[in-house]
Specification:
single chain, alpha/beta, 2-enoyl-CoA Hydratase, Chain A, domain 1, Lyase 2-enoyl-coa Hydratase, Chain  A, domain 2, six-stranded mixed sheet, four-stranded mixed sheet, 12 helices, 10 strands
Amino acid sequence: MKAFEELDLEYFTTDVRDHIGVLRIDRPPVNAHNIDVLLELQRAVEGVRFDENVRICVFGSTNDNIFSTGFDINDLREKSGKQVGYASQTSKEIIMKMRTTDTLFIAAVDGHCMGGGLELALACDFRFVGDDDDYRIGMPEVHLGLIAGEAGTQLLPRYIDRSEALRMMVTGEELTPEEATEKGIFDELHDPEDLEDAVFEFAEMIVQKPAGAVGHNKLAVNEGLELPLWDALAHERELQNQLLGSDIAKEGVEAFLNDREPDFLGVELGEKEPGSE
């Protein structure tokens, strides 16, 4: 399987910077997606999943003012309902693949983020957004006689108040990035010129953490919240047991006891013996 940065994609660019994978949607003029775009996104997500050199993935856009306006309206007119339905189902499957891959995804939203574009951002573990009042955030599918069908009806109420989420969907209202952040849709709000720096500063910090522990925390949360409590606790126990006694855990314990900074990255890359000074 090709490394993430070597993927030959038409609608996305891929790059790796110091173990940070950078995935940018690139389909002018508005980064609308259809089944061809989604199938490429699936390849990219699988590339992140299987590339051990990628410890975190930043998901952004090549367009300075648009993250994505969602599903391509032309396809809604030209394709059969069955074909569009399969595309919607494929999008859901990709979103679940993102949520169950033990690599963190960070959405860097610097522009309009509407409909399916917002749903793809919600698939990420963290969402940073540029503070520009001209940007619009929303789920306007009701204006087309549709629902937010790329997991939006299920993801948005998992992040914000149920009534607030439903209101957005049934009215099709558009929010500014600041309003969306206040509701809890985005985690951090930054000046557009500072957004990428903030995203990469956060990503660089996570890269230094033990990848196994980071990934297991993600899976424990994302998968555990969908389970009854006792099942979720059993899932947590299994994930923790996989880490106990590992070289990474040994490095963390020894570093703590010796009052030094742990070198998790060095241990995982085989550049340092666990517990050594």
